[in-house]
Amino acid sequence: MLCLYNFIRTTGTLKKQPVYVWMWFTGFIFFLITYLESYLWLIPYFRNNIVNDLTIQWKSYGSMVGSWNMLIYGCGIYLMDKISGTQTYSYSKTGFAIYFLGLFNLMFNWGHHIYTVPTHGYIKHVSYLVSMTELLLLGRIIFLWRRQMKQNKKHIHQPGFRFYAAADFWIFLTLVLAIAMSIPAINVYTHGTHITVAHTMGATIGINTFLLLAVVFDQLNPLIRKIKNFHRYLLPGFRICNISLFIFWISLIVAGIMKAWWQVHRPEVPFSTMMISLRPYFMMFMITGVTLTAGMWMMLLPVVKQYFMHGMHAKKRMELLYKKRNASLSTY
Fold this sequence. Notes:
mainly alpha
């Protein structure tokens, strides 16, 4: 609430604001609404009906993730305008069209999680149609791919841009998987498997984390420039992160496919036997998780170290100025 209050007070008005301001505003609003909605199970009317409770829980948390994504994607568009040096996109009709499509998905896209819940059919039908609108986003990414490759060469020297380009790649992969999971005939197999986890990890790490890192590295660019040979840490860490995340993601998808085949076609096989057969993929999942963390620290540790060193130097300068001030006052 305090964050929303501060945002409204700082912004003043929503008239003639860029699209990322609208994304931040609606992200704050819907996050508060969905957070309150997720606690409706405390009321007996909702808690005593298992179907309604499941539906509301999936709806609230699905939309809550969409709200968080609104906040992060708004930061991404802000950074994109800052790197390009113009605000053409953030005030364009295309930018606001994509915003409203994302808002539409935020409110209604959650229904593919409850295909197996015996709730009202129209909820599932509407959610399926809304999920398919993501094909427009996918088509746009493919259409603009060649132009983005040219921009990569132009802005690759900026530390935050590498993360932005990586997030764009993971948006493509996550959208392909999300659209596939939203098809009922495929969702029957993927629901409750590690494919859902792969979708979540691809979105959380590949998109959200990389976009946040892009914004942080851009804001700390003056400090990063003071780090000697920073690219010796950035490039290897960046490559280790993305390669590890891709193998991490694939291992979950393969484990999910095998579990989906078991739960539909081989229910007579014990659950423990099936899980033991997935052990190689879990081992790969664990190993790549460790290398992914190591790659992250390769990039972040020099920045964190420089940030604290800068803070310590600033503190010493303030103490020195304070001593000089006291010394000059004592002479009078």
